[in-house]
Amino acid sequence: MISNFTQTDIVGSVEASLLLMLILFIPGYVIGWLTNVFEFRRRRIATQALLSTPLAVAVLPILIFYVGRYPAALWAFFGTSWIIFAVLLRRTLKGRWGSGLPRIPRAVWIGVGFALIWALVAIGTLVDLQFKNRLYFSVPAYDYSLRTALTAAAAKAIPPNNPFFANTPPVPLRYHYFWMLICSLAVRLGHVGARQAMYGGTVWAGIALMSLIAICLKFFVNVRERIERKVLIGWGLLLVTGLDILPTIYLYVHSHAVMPEMEWWNEQITSWVDALLWTPHHIMGLVACMVGFMLLRQPVTKKHERAVAILVAGLAFASAVGLSVLVTFTFAGFVALWVVFATHRRWWDDVVGFVAAGGLAFTAALPYLTKLTGPAVNGLGGGGRFFAFSIRGFPLAIYAVSSVVGVPYSKLIFLELPLLPLNYFLELGFFFVIAVLRIKSIRAGSTPMTRQEETGWMMVATSFLVGRFLSSTTIGSNDLGWRCFVLAQLVLLLWAALLVDDWWAAGSIALISKNKTAVFAGVLLVLGMVGSIYQVTMLRVYPILHDVGSMDPKTFPFLYMDRKLGERTYALRSVYDQLSTMLPRDAIIQYNPDTLAFLQHELYSVHDAAIGLQLCGTVLGGTIDQCMGRIKSVPPLFKKPSLTQSASLDDTCREYRINVMLVDDDDPVWKQGDSWVWTRVPLLANDHVRAFQCGDVANQAQLAGVH
């Protein structure tokens, strides 16, 4: 009987989404009520609901980091919050709706519709699609494979250990993993899989971002008129990206190249939808930073209210560090500039608030930061330099100029700086025009330079300075240069919501006859929407198109060249799903750490590996010196038949406590008829995958008994 993995993923993702309501929304509501930040208790129910998830994202990660190591205390905390919420809900319903259910505003129904549509998009994009015995993951699985393994590790222990370096004693994980902590609680609470928990987390990340836009319009931009419509416009603008669709069309026409990810043509400023689907933890870092910032900017009259705001803001900034180091680094740069600016303006209340909250955040995050920053891994991980100075690249334009003038690419690098405005115009599109119009409005005196306006421009400037002159050094991709822009993107989206609302209020006739700039902006808006739709579609269908021969197999090197991705993925997941029911949670499954199919192994295994990535994944914890013995003994078992005798295999398994060796037909050892792959009796096997017990005979007997 063929398992329906698509159905399994959908059901699990929906269940995880519901469980995360218990873990995020309800505790967030209780936090708002108990602290009364943003004057929570006197707000309308709709406003309280919008505040709840961002407050949870701001406060819970750092609390779970500390309390999570004591499971009884952790669930006592959540249980208490659920009870308090039930009491508050009953009192609220009795007090406000005692005479009957009120009419729910249309804007609320539309907001619920937005959330449901996002849930459909997120789950529909991320789950595996099955066609009989072929199974296809989506392109974002490239990132989810790593974070699924980290979420599974967090479901076993908080703080989590490096799942790619199973060791005694365990190797602490070095990563911004606080969002994985949140998602792992769904695994513990409902026994959903780590992947489904991550997918449910992505649903709630979108809800948190939409909530952030609403509360930013109210508490940051200080909107007072037509706020419901501005909020809905802001949510709609999440679908708008830059002009990436134009370079995508150019690449297809010029070289017939179709990228799995539309953003990969350049040093990306990632669309909102893409950022949520690939890296929701970075967006949650933005949420935490902005909640903390707005708390410190709220006017209060009582000292204890100010103290509570500083406390919650400090926790929010500490959570942000573990949610996204990259976004928090950019935000910290903004805060540093803001404190200097506030000191110059003698805004002492702001200065004291930010310094106090920053000190609290540093103290709270210090134990996490200590693990994050060391020890050094030969420049590959902790202890290495976090960033380097460089001009933001624009390779497509340089190549185009090179082909026209006949000058080598290397001699035209100097053009990256003067071409930056064009670079940003293509990446931002509609929002680039919004920035230009905002500047014109300020110069014309239509938009006053208030404290909020100055704050917004300082956020935009900080993002552009970091994105223009700094780049990541810890990994191959320029994550810092990509993620730093979310702060500016948020501000530009808020301003865009205001401007679109003004255009809307002016009417379509006035828009066409009197405001040609608005028409141009509208064209860019439509192109941005088309780009996002194309992007989501390609993320979903690219692996399928690869298998049917519509794509160049060399474009995405993590897919099989023989176009049997669907068959192999189904075979591998089938074996891993069976192993997950047969093996204890602490069992170790070893696969070829150098395999082309590392993505699928990380995605579907819920067990640790002795060496799960190249160099044992020491960029995520541990040192290469600790890994050297494994490098010498484990990978050769999958590569060199002369070294793969059964005795050597069992010795290696005993040394590193490996319970199961898993081989797929892409491993060199599979092709050797006299190797251990064909001379040992497998625990599980199909046409593409074979799993073997190894090591201690007593363990083998135990596993066989379970089987």
Structure description:
The protein has helices at residues 5-35, 45-67, 71-96, 106-126, 141-156, 178-190, 194-219, 227-237, 245-255, 272-278, 280-297, 303-323, 325-345, 348-373, 395-405, 420-428, 430-444, 451-469, 479-483, 486-506, 508-514, 516-547, 565-582, 598-604, 624-633, 646-655, 676-679, 697-706, and strands spanning 129-131, 134-136, 387-389, 470-472, 589-590, 660-664, 684-685, 689-693. Helices cover 64% and strands 4% of the residues. It has 28 helices and 8 strands. Strand 7 and strand 8 form a beta hairpin. The model is unreliable at 376-383 and 697-707 (pLDDT under 50). It is mainly alpha-helical. It folds into 3 domains: 5-224, no CATH class; 230-521, no CATH class; 565-706, no CATH class.
